From TrEMBL:
The lineage of its organism: Eukaryota, Viridiplantae, Streptophyta, Embryophyta, Tracheophyta. Residues 1-23 form the signal peptide. This is Neprosin PEP catalytic domain-containing protein. The keyword Phosphoprotein does not apply. InterPro entries: Glutamic_endopeptidase, Neprosin, Neprosin_propep.
Length: 416
């Protein structure tokens, strides 16, 4: 009897001990992993700038940027300027948007501004591995429900966004594109759940519907990644439909930055307001056919490029689909109750005219003739048109304007 009690006690004690040991070991390991990742992500700064919005911008030697951690890019020689004439037709009015940090300092030539990643940013991520990534699927059950469904637009198979995303866009297919651009109206839509994000952007895509490559840029409100609800300029890439590769900005190795003036992931201001002044960012993504580098152009500045000849396969030659529009990521899209995260200005696309729905104007593509033109064929799409809609306003003979957006759930019985 006594013996049995003793054994039982001992067993209980062991369970407690192993639990403690386990728990401690785990948290210690995780923390050192976090530190290691931070060290990897944040390169030594030549100078650091504290921005009014709380960001720290590190001016990092251009040759020590995160891209060079990529095994395939170790020996990459930076292309400092595109070999095509970068003075591309200036279509819109001058935009008076600034990056908030730019008021507090500048990085010198030879260095690039990188938004510093902090411990709390990493701790917010679902996992260190997924830090900086858009997840394509529900992380808790991904296999059979890999999360995508397909539609056909003019005989081209198009992946409609995965179940965790709701998208409204203008799309063109049917040619080989080596560039795309547009002036994206800038807003600060409401984000409902801390994990949600919402963007206004351009996608340049290539490859098959279920394993496409995509390079993207525009503005985004993404509290989980950036720690606040400011509107920020971003770049994104993936070479496997968001499954394993790619990330926002410079949170992984891939994008090569050349600009010492523009920081990826930095807050931009001012944002547009209802019936008030309208602001927009001119975004262009153009391939240098001599190098296969896809250059990102933001407000007249070459920010850097995605080295498609090394990182990407389909986009190494050209893009076969371009989209312009908005994207809401949430576990609660296509659900009742639906996420209340808004897209664009929060107005449906039918609210045309400046100061209403969010718009993209001066939509252009570039083909191998290297001239910018309005796409010969476009179509609109919205995954959940009763929540977020799209409308291409294109009366004959005038410059078309693409409108997109919506309030998300809870405002209208149509979007629960
Ligand atoms: C490629 O490089 C050559 C020589 O530098 C230049 O003449 C040509 O314009 C470039 N082509 C493109 C598309 O940039
Ligand atoms: C561009 O500028 C003109 C003249 O100042 C103005 O009438 C027009 O509304 C502006 N367009 C936009 C989109 O701000
Ligand atoms: C995703 O699911 C669809 C439909 O079940 C399937 O056709 C497709 O091959 C899957 N894609 C991948 C990458 O597993
Ligand atoms: C499909 O795209 C081609 C251009 O590739 C265009 O000429 C044609 O009109 C489009 N078809 C439809 C049904 O829109
Ligand atoms: C994502 O990548 C993993 C690991 O490479 C692979 O097993 C899985 O099939 C991929 N899923 C999709 C949807 O492509
Ligand atoms: C891109 O194309 C070039 C020239 O055709 C080739 O040498 C290179 O291996 C390709 N890169 C990739 C990643 O496919
Ligand atoms: C994701 O998976 C979790 C757990 O299986 C589930 O509760 C949640 O509803 C799923 N989300 C979506 C969007 O399917």
């Amino acid at each position: 009897m006594a013996k049995m009690n003793f054994t039982l006690l001992w067993a209980l004690a062991l369970i407690c001990l192993s639990r403690n040991a386990d728990g401690k070991a785990k948290s210690r390991e995780t923390l050192s992993d976090v530190d290691r990742k931070l060290k990897l992500l944040n390169k030594p700064a030549v100078k650091s700038i504290l921005s009014d919005d709380g960001d720290i911008i590190d001016c990092v030697d251009i040759h020590k940027q995160p891209a060079f951690d990529h095994p395939a890019l170790r020996t990459h020689v930076i292309q400092m300027k595109p070999s095509f004439d970068a003075r591309i037709e200036n279509l819109g009015n001058r935009s008076h948007i600034v990056q908030t940090w730019q008021r507090s300092g500048t990085c010198s030539e030879g260095t690039i501004p990188i938004r510093r990643i902090r411990k709390q940013d990493l701790l917010r991520a679902a996992s260190l591995e997924n830090f900086g990534r858009k997840l394509s699927h529900n992380t808790s059950n991904n296999r059979e429900q890999n999360g995508s469904h397909f539609i056909h637009i003019n005989n081209t198979e198009v992946v409609v966004s995965p179940i965790v995303r709701s998208t409204a866009y203008l799309v063109t297919v049917g040619y080989n594109y080596i560039g795309a651009s547009g002036d994206i109206n800038v807003w600060n839509p409401k984000v409902d759940l801390p994990e949600d994000f919402t963007s206004g952007q351009i996608w340049v895509r290539g490859g098959p519907g279920d394993n496409f490559e995509s390079i993207e840029s525009g503005w985004v409100v993404n509290p989980k990644l950036y720690g606040d609800t400011r509107t920020r300029f971003f770049a994104y890439w993936t070479k496997d439909a968001y499954n394993q590769t790619g990330c926002f900005d410079l949170t992984c190795s891939g994008f090569i930055q050349t600009s010492s003036h523009v920081a990826l992931g930095a807050a931009i201001e001012p944002c547009s307001s209802r019936s008030g002044p309208q602001y927009y960012i001119p975004i262009g993504i153009f391939m240098d056919t001599n190098t296969s580098n896809w250059w990102l152009r933001y407000s007249g500045t070459e920010v850097g490029y995605w080295p498609a000849g090394t990182l990407l396969f389909y986009l190494n030659h050209s893009s076969t689909m371009v989209q312009w529009g908005g994207d809401v990521y949430s576990q609660n899209v296509r659900k009742n109750p639906h996420t209340k995260t808004a897209m664009g200005s929060g107005e449906f696309a039918s609210a045309t005219g400046l100061g209403n729905a969010c718009f993209i104007q001066h939509v252009r593509i570039m083909d191998f003739s290297r001239t910018l033109k309005y796409p010969e064929w476009v179509s609109t799409w919205a995954d959940e048109p009763y929540c977020y809609s799209s409308l291409n306003w294109a009366p004959y003979g005038v410059e078309p304007v693409f409108y997109f957006g919506g309030p998300g759930g809870g405002y209208d019985y149509m979007c629960p």
